[in-house]
Amino acid sequence: MSRVRLSGRESGRSNASERGEDTMFKTNGREPRRMRNRTYTADAEPGDTVTVAGWVHEIRDLGGIAFLILRDTSGKIQVKFEKDEMDDDLVETGLGVHRESVISVTGEVAEEPRAPTGVEVTPESLDVIAEAEAQLPLDPSGKVDAELSTRLDNRTLDLRKDEVKAIFEIRAEVQRAVREQFRDLRATEINTPKIVATGTEGGTELFPITYFGKEAFMNQSPQLFKQLMVGSGLERVFEVGPIFRAEEHNTPRHLNEATSIDFESAFIDHTEAMDVCEAVVTAAYEAVEENCQDELEALGLEDEFEAPSGEFPRLTYEEAIQRINATGELDEQLVWGDDLPTEGEKALGEDVGEHYFITDWPSEIKPFYIKDHDDDETLSTGFDMMHPNMELVSGGQREHRFDHLVAGFEQQGLDPDAFEYYTKMFKYGMPPHAGFGLGGERLIMTMLGLENIREAVLFPRDRQRLSP
RNA sequence: GCCCGGGUGGUGUAGUGGCCCAUCAUACGACCCUGUCACGGUCGUGACGCGGGUUCAAAUCCCGCCUCGGGCGCCA
User: Fold this and answer.
1) Is A155 among the catalytic positions?
2) Bridge partner residues of A262 (DSSP)
3) CA pair distance A274, A424, nearest whole angstrom
4) Which one from A99, A160, A236, A254 is the annotated catalytic residue?
5) Interface TM-score (ipTM) > 0.95
6) Nearest nt (C1') to A58 (CA)?
7) Distance separating the N- and C-terminal Cα atoms of chain A
């Protein structure tokens, strides 16, 4: 039986124990003495005398002998109590703690084939650092399920479960890979304001706030700011950051605070933006496949997980509605100009069976800042990138010509003056540019087959949830 | 915003008018058990979201409220 290993650490990421001793509790000389030489359970080697610290996962008392399973971020280790041969106080303390209490145990590690991980610790001393209450609001050992709502109310305990922790390790890896891919493409990471004076499009619901007595809003997208930056000396930028939407929807795929992965570049067109989009999503999958095998295993996905290979099919809007109509899944046939209903998206996704783009949308159903085709102004350069189950990305070539931009505002019933901070920069040399916004949580959700987008956020904000 | 469906011990559930001072699992408490690994065994503690109504009788039916989930619309 193989030992529980430190998640992901052996696959290229830095490992404290490889650099020498555990540094986590050594860098600060003011840490309690007993923490300085703490050893991760996964690093406890037979013959060593170690101090391991973590949570009491389970106690199995067989009478004359008892086992305490101690869990930390690296895995679990068995602590053995032989009652006749050990100090009574030590036994009483060790076996008297409630599950999920934090303890530290110092003792010798021995090879033991009968132990779950092949090694076990015989305690010489034991400290109860933080006792947990007897009744827990959810069961971190996973023997009894908890509903999502209960889990979100008790996220700390929820993330003591390997399969939940794995989602966020993977999320971190996705964000790392995405940043690396953007950096490889010479894009500069930027951070734009989340408190703004005006919305991006005006149509979508915004969260109003008071800003020193003035009306302000939480930003629903970095769209306008990232466009302003392609005209700057940076030329090509990306941002991974929060967006806020006040829509009162109640679905497993919407959040009121979400993470948007945004990209925008000067001197590229919408087809090149699609190339970047494809590269970024593929890079995220490949990084997870390469560096997160333990996490995929914890989620039971080790066999089925597969990075997309090759190019994503690019369907025009017209082809898309024809294919949807051909599936016969919809009661009414779609006609040119219709937005794609959820049911249609699903039918098409099933038909295509992989990530794909929908291009050449009718101009009228795409936002004003998306450029129309030069040879056909009824056709937009806007594109969506779809996972078979849902929309992940929206992007396009942007309107960089001042006159056309202002006309677009007016056509959508927006007051160009309210956006003067934005439009005026189009008078001083704005290059042609394109980009996209990718829903970070939707990427994680579809990648891991999560049933609810809230599972991809530590502390989701939805229509009814404002805390924790 | 419109529509639909839920809320039963700490947690997850069974229970569609009387068989329910409510089922099962897990947790918790006590006791037994020297190799467990979802340890096992015996006993015990613990719940019908809130308010009102119908009825001889309500967890169960009705109304309001609170709360959770979902469908549609919408969605960078």
Assistant:
1) no
2) A239, A437
3) 28
4) A254
5) no
6) B37
7) 40
